[in-house]
Specification:
The complex is a heterodimer of chains A (131) and B (291).
Chain A (H helix, E strand, L loop, with lengths): L21 E6 L3 H11 L11 E6 L11 H10 L4 E3 L5 H18 L8 H13 L1
Parallel strand pairs in A: 1-2, 2-3
Chain B lengths: L7 H4 L6 E7 L2 E2 L6 H18 L11 E8 L11 E8 L11 E9 L4 H4 L6 E2 L3 E6 L1 H15 L3 E3 L4 H12 L10 E6 L8 E6 L1 H11 L8 H19 L7 E6 L3 E4 L3 E4 L5 H16 L1
Antiparallel strand pairs in B: 1-7, 1-8, 1-13, 2-6, 3-4, 4-5, 5-7, 9-10, 9-11, 11-12, 12-13
Chain lengths: 131, 291
């Protein structure tokens, strides 16, 4: 399900299936996309931040068009205890591998991988980030 | 901002010219004492290119005289190498010695507070990470090829990201100038439209200065947060009036009274007063592209 911002329209609440993962997409070329994500974050229930939120930064292949500081996004990830993934959607290989990563994260968040919970996975990712 | 050591007389020729920017990796075994020899070698190289029939372009003459000189004034700290100037002139056809050669191309290497780079290079290398050119691209490419072959260095176009353009606006929009300042102008390119559309946002110099004064906390110091707040104010003002989010567009060109810069890596320095500061920022951009 794709949405340009949160909150989602309440009219369809009763039809919506359970949400297992929220991926916030930030275009590194657009300050606006960062602001949009920051505003949308306020509408997310706190329980999602236990491993069911992740930030996806796109457009990193074109650093010459960079409008958002990488530090800013990393700090956002730290503030919300959620991982930050970087990718370049214009490159097919990266696009495919990023999609595979997100799918894997989604499988864990949906509880399809026995023995790994969303929370344990996120703390695993955080520890490897620090290294 | 650094103390202005630049002698306005000697550097007047740098002002109000559109300079194309490149980053240059350190030069191997470059000896300042041999500048005259280098000039002769480059001259021969250009003549050879003409013989080869390469780089022949309408209007580009190849009977070229090369001059190289050192500009001690153009540097930041004592660790910086003095700037190196390369001038290409058209040899005058007239036989009289008094007739002047016409300057067709100008390029200079410099380093202003480039300690980050120069601290970490071995002995035989000379760090002059910023290269600025003015004149035909074909001359630039010949000069660049000669330097690359002779000193084993690498030139790359230096583009300026919207993030860095924002810094340029913030740093010099609020400058105190002796003469009446021209306004601040920002040019944005709107993405993903079938026809290209540019938006030009002009701000009165007094307003820009007033805004910057409310944002900047410590005079002489600028933080990323302050730049962000300054730009956000400009964006929300524009949105309030035109319902367009400039933050979603690409900032391609900025103009202030001190300097104007385009994202393709073209700058024009308009005032000698803040030249050192501008060159320091550009040196920093060049160094981050190299590292």
């Amino acid at each position: 399900h794709l949405a340009t911002s949160l909150p989602l329209p309440s009219e369809r609440d009763h039809l919506r299936p359970r949400i297992d993962l929220i991926v916030f997409m930030i275009d590194i070329k657009s300050k606006y996309s960062l602001k949009n994500v920051e505003t949308s974050l306020a509408h997310v229930d706190a329980s999602f931040f236990l491993g069911k939120v992740c930030f996806l930064v796109t457009g990193v292949g074109r650093l010459n068009s960079c409008g958002v500081e990488t530090n800013t996004v990393c700090k956002l990830g730290e503030t919300y205890c959620s991982p930050v993934l970087f990718c370049e959607l214009e490159l097919e290989g990266v696009r495919v591998s990023t999609a595979q990563r997100l799918l894997r994260i989604l499988q864990i968040c949906a509880g399809h991988i026995p023995g790994v919970s969303a929370l344990s996975f996120v703390s695993l990712m955080r520890r490897s980030d620090d290294n | 901002p650094p103390k202005e050591k630049v002698d306005p007389q000697k550097t007047a020729f740098l002002l109000r010219k559109a300079w194309t920017l490149y980053s240059v990796t350190p030069l191997y075994r470059f000896h300042r004492s041999r500048l005259k020899d280098y000039a002769r070698l480059l001259s021969a190289f250009i003549a050879a290119e003409k013989q080869k029939g390469l780089a022949v372009e309408v209007g580009v003459e190849l009977d070229i005289k090369v001059a190289m000189s050192s500009l001690a004034e153009l540097r930041g700290s004592e660790q910086d190498q003095a700037a190196v100037l390369v001038q290409l002139s058209l040899r005058s056809r007239a036989s009289s010695r008094n007739s002047e050669d016409k300057l067709v191309w100008l390029g200079w290497f410099c380093s202003v507070y480039g300690d980050d780079l120069s601290e970490n290079v071995p002995e035989d290398f000379t760090c002059l990470p910023l290269f600025l050119t003015h004149g035909a691209e074909s001359y630039t490419s010949m000069v660049g090829s000669w330097f690359q072959k002779t000193f084993d260095c690498c030139f790359r176009h230096l583009a300026i990201s919207p993030l860095n353009l924002s810094w340029i606006v913030a740093m010099w929009a609020g400058c105190k100038l002796d003469r009446a300042a021209s306004g601040v102008e920002l040019v944005f390119s709107m993405p993903r439209l079938p026809q290209p559309l540019d938006i030009s946002y002009a701000i009165h110099p007094e307003d820009a200065k007033a805004l910057w004064d409310t944002v900047q906390k410590t005079p002489g110091e600028i933080t990323q947060e302050e730049v962000d707040v300054f730009m956000d104010c400009l964006y929300s003002h524009f949105h309030r009036h035109f319902k367009i989010h400039l933050s979603a567009a690409k900032l391609v060109k900025v103009s202030t009274a001190v300097v104007s810069a385009h994202c393709d890596g073209i700058v024009k320095i308009l005032q000698s007063q803040y030249m050192s500061g501008v060159l320091m920022l550009l040196t920093e951009l060049a160094i981050s592209q190299i590292q």
